[in-house]
Design a protein that fits this description.
Layout: H1 2-77, H2 82-135
Helix pairs in contact: 1-2
Region (Disordered): 73-96
Length: 136
């Protein structure tokens, strides 16, 4: 009888431990879900910001190309004026340098955008992994 009671106490103690462990794991899962959701939101905001910057830089490049074309047309129209030609050439060179700089920045932003998209995908997959772990 005493042996049976002792076995029941051990079983109940083990059951209690398992219930506490389950509660702890559910609490941790909830906290991880909050962290993941926060990361998703932050990633989505960063992605939107990178896309906006990408659009702005693309528009700046188009504007600079238009200015360059207009200046080239003006230079050809007034080709005989040496002073204007030299100033226009300087402006054209500056615009080309600016175009290269903007294209470089655009490339950087495209790279950052790709990283954010990858991070966003990872964060979306993480809750599934946590849920699968909790299920097993």
């Amino acid at each position: 009888m005493q042996n049976e009671a002792s076995t029941q106490i051990v079983a109940l103690t083990e059951e209690n431990k398992l219930k506490l462990l389950t509660e702890l794991l559910q609490t941790e899962k909830g906290q991880l879900d909050l962290v993941i959701e926060s990361g998703k939101q932050e990633s989505a905001e960063s992605l939107a910001e990178a896309e906006n910057q990408n659009s702005e830089l693309s528009q700046n490049i188009l504007d600079q190309e238009l200015k360059l074309k207009e200046q080239e047309e003006a230079r050809l129209k007034f080709g005989g004026r040496e002073g204007q030609s030299s100033a226009t050439d300087n402006e054209k060179n500056l615009l080309r340098e600016e175009k290269v700089r903007l294209q470089s920045k655009l490339t950087e932003l495209e790279f950052a955008l790709a990283e954010k998209v990858e991070e966003h995908g990872y964060l979306q997959k993480k809750p599934e992994d946590v849920q699968n772990e909790a299920s097993t």
